[in-house]
Amino acid sequence: MDAQRFDSLAKSLAGRLSRRGALRRMGAAAGAGVLAAAGAREEQALALAAAQNSDKPLYTMIRRYSLDEPTAKVRRALQQGYTDAACKAKGFVAYLTVEDEDGDFATVAVFTSQDALEAFAKQEANWIAQNLGNLLPAPEEVTSGDTYIHAVAQKGFANTCPARAANQAQGAATMAPTSGTLPTAAAGNPTPTPAPTATPEPACRDAGCVCTTGTNRACKGDLVCCPTTDLLGGPGVCRTQAECYPNACPANGAACPDSCTAGTACSACCSGYCAANGTCGDQPAPCTSEGCACNGGVQGACDAGLVCCQEGDSIPGGAGVCQTEANCAPAACTDSGCACTTGTQSPCDSGLVCCATTSTPGGPGTCLAESACEPVACTGSGCPCNGGVQGNCDDGLVCCQNGEAAPGGQGTCTPQAECAPAPCTGEGCACNGG
């Protein structure tokens, strides 16, 4: 396979194969590479031996498929006519299949030259179209190239053509192929159709028709020319996109798979996003202009000249809105030393308390560590006080002493209107005798 063709194939496969699938693919291809050294009939075995002793390579094409149907069904179909005709093809050396229990199915075709293999490809596509129906999708991987034989047990693989067992020979006799033409399969599974005659012009473009890849309108309507080889402009079969590429992801503009939700990320779309209209598409650029939602501390969350403005506490990664700095109200000060109001919820950062500066509930305070917060003297209404001491009661209150007023004497902070004056007991005061 030339570099351009391999690169194109690799790109088409990259979006469709899982890591597990890729590992299975490597295992299947490796096994097929070993089996490709096997001969078929005696002259083919001689060709293998000759290739082993010369620098002239054979030519091999390995195709890997992922099948929904049991691999044995396809293998039996190939045995019912296909391999017999392959044995008669010019330059044919060997044909093998490799399969596993997970539905991986690989075919290995070995010819004496690339020209011989390509000459057989058109007849092969006709046979696949007529006999395999929808059993065989487009190959998920096609590898072809020169094949050098390093070792071969010549006797072990001699006289293996025709490939069918003796008990199939009688049924095959009723549809023996003419030279160079692939027969249709014997009655069985899958049900065969008669081998096509020469393709009329214009070519058939319906489902199941043989087509040429890369040509304009090779198939009708929404059908595609599903390739059967890796040859540019090579043969194919008209099938639906889903039948040809069952593991392909929908391109942009195609309807999102049922597993997707409109307007969200969707791994089933090639783009990884299902647009709001329900079709696969590129994910829209994030909103970063004024008024857009943002997360604080995220670089590039807002356009130049804007900041991610968070109301209240500023939290890294927290939700905000893109605003100009002038329109963004500063977050409340809650650090040590910040002013606060006692009795409110979380007025200070974690580890700090709102240390009251007055004894009034809900009054002003300062954010401090609890160990640094000293209790405030009681100066409100009803608080004990000492007469004649400045500031021992709040504004509007007096240190009211019932009875004799004595400087430094005990009293209670009381509104002046409610404080009864001490009785007059000095000279000139009224009194009661006795």
Secondary structure blueprint with pairings:
Elements: H1 3-14, H2 19-35, H3 42-52, E1 58-66, H4 71-88, E2 92-99, E3 104-111, H5 114-131, E4 141-147, H6 169-173, E5 210-212, E6 223-227, E7 235-240, H7 241-244, E8 264-265, E9 273-274, E10 293-295, E11 306-309, E12 319-324, E13 339-341, E14 352-356, E15 364-369, E16 384-386, E17 397-400, E18 410-415
Antiparallel strand pairs: 1-3, 1-4, 2-3, 5-7, 6-7, 8-9, 10-12, 11-12, 13-15, 14-15, 16-18, 17-18
Describe the structure.
With about 425 residues, the chain is of the alpha+beta class. Among the domains are: about 5-195, 2-Layer Sandwich (Alpha-Beta Plaits), CATH 3.30.70; about 295-320, no CATH class; about 340-370, no CATH class; about 385-420, no CATH class. Helix content is about 20%, strand content about 20%. The protein has seven helices and 18 strands. The strands form six sheets. The chain has a four-stranded antiparallel sheet with strand order 2-3-1-4, sandwiched between helices. The protein has a three-stranded antiparallel sheet with strand order 5-7-6. The chain has a three-stranded antiparallel sheet with strand order 10-12-11, with no helix packed on it. Strand 2 (about 90-100) and strand 3 form a beta hairpin. It is rod-shaped, with a radius of gyration of 46 Å.
